Amino acid sequence: MNATTLPDTLLRILADKEVEVRNRAATTPLDEIEKQAKDAGKPRDFTGALCNAVADGRIGLISEIKRASPSGGLIRDPFEPAAIASAYEAAGAACLSVLTDAPFFQGEPQHLIEARAACKLPVLRKDFMIDPWQVFETRAMGGDCILLIMAALSDAQARELEEVARSLDLSVLAEVHDEKELERALGLNTRLIGINNRDLRSLRTDLATAERLVPMVPADRIPVAESGLRNAADVRRMADVGARCILVGEHLLRQPDLTAAAREMVEA
Question: What are the distances in angstroms from CA 215 to CA 85, 185, 211, 238, 266?
Fold first, then answer.
């Protein structure tokens, strides 16, 4: 990772995240958060849930729960994580993704805790992971998978975070935006490779990104198309290039009938 090449928004997020993690770790030291993680029990199988959905002939939908985003502002109000999780589960979603970043997404750990308690789906903690402390915190709050944004991490950082996750039986979703990041992500052990259609600089989405990158993902990995999917036609477009797993958030959360909207994606 070269900080000079990162978009300003991501730089601000990472700078804030360093301060946040330092403060949280001062309140709950590493040895304590490690103990909480180990006491949290066995995680749900996030990767397995996606594989099962695809094996059953369905789309492996990771349905997202977030209050707001830098590009979209406030997305859903009132915001009820438990009710949203239940609606997604009823639609046949394979997994959940829950934002826990506060400054930019108005998220918090409690959102993940409430959502996971309301359903049987495995949950991705969607946040900016930069420190092993956060990986232990993820399991302690009940998360089943972590996100590694390759644009925000060096190869050494990504490997270290993945090793901690594997020690806790957590799944890992490695997110990429271009060919170089994809090559780096393939150096990790995780099978889950997220192809984010959102440009980090302009924040615009273009499904052509996944159309270009998904065919480069080896057969032993699982491509997950992220961002910019708004209807069944978009889902089929991603499936046509080999991405039968998708992550969808903002589009679903803006619909009055969450279950119907998510079901359209699952059955596309």
Answer: 31, 15, 7, 11, 22
Report d(CA 132, CA 164) in Å as an integer. 7
Two structure tokens written together for 112: 């993940």
Q: Return the number of other C-beta atoms located less than 10 Å from residue 18's C-beta.
A: 13
> Has residue 30 got a pLDDT over 60?
yes
C-alpha radius of gyration, the chain, whole number: 17
3-class DSSP assignment, residue 205? strand
Q: Residue 202 burial by CB count (10 A; 0-12/13-18/19+): exposed, middle or buried?
A: exposed
Q: Are 157 and 129 in contact (CB under 8 A)?
A: no
DSSP secondary structure string for all residues of 2-42: -GGGS-HHHHHHHHHHHHHHHHHHHHS-HHHHHHHHHHT-P
Beta-carbon contacts of 231 under 8 Å, excluding residues fewer than 6 positions away, are: 264
Within the chain, residue ranges assigned H as helices are 8-27, 30-39, 46-55, 81-91, 109-117, 132-140, 155-167, 179-185, 208-213, 232-240, 250-253, 258-266
Phi-psi region of 92 (alpha: psi -120 to 50; beta: other; left: phi over 0): left
pLDDT at 73 over 80: yes
What are the φ and ψ backbone dihedral angles of 200, each rounded to 5 degrees? -65, -25
How many CB atoms neighbour CB 70 within 10 A? Answer: 13
pTM summary value: 0.95
- Return d(Cα 89, Cα 83) in angstroms, integer: 10
Within 8 A by CB and 6+ apart from 112, the residues are 81, 98, 100, 123, 125, 141, 142, 143
- The percent of the chain in helix, strand and coil, each rounded to the nearest 5, is 45, 15, 35
Mean pLDDT of 105-126: 97
